[in-house]
Amino acid sequence: MFKILKYSFFDLIRSRWSYVYLFFYLTLGFVLLFLNNDLSKAVITLMNVIIILVPLIGTIFGVMYYYDSKEFTELLLAQPVKRASIFLGQYLGVAISLSLSLLIGLGLPFVLYGLFQSSAIWDFVLLLVTGTFLTLIFTGLAFNIALYNENKIKGFSYAILLWLFMAVIYDGLFLMSLILLEEYPLDTFSIGATLFNPIDLSRILILLKLDISALLGYTGAVFQKFFGTGLGFLMALSALALWVALPLLNIYRKSRKKDF
Amino acid sequence: MIHIENLYKSFGKNKVLEGIDLSISEKGIFAILGPNGSGKTTLIKSILGMVIPDSGTISLNGNSIKNKWNYRNEIDYLPQIANFPSNLTVRELIKMIKDLRNLPGEDEQLIELFKLSPFLNKKLSNLSGGTKQKVNLVLTLMFDSPLIILDEPTTGLDPIALLHLKNLIIQEKAKGKTILITSHIMSFVEEMADQIVFLLEGKVYFKGDIKTLLTQTNEPNFERAIANLLTEQNV
Question: Among residues A62, A169, A200, B209, which is most buried (max CB within 10 A)?
Answer without folding.
Answer: A62
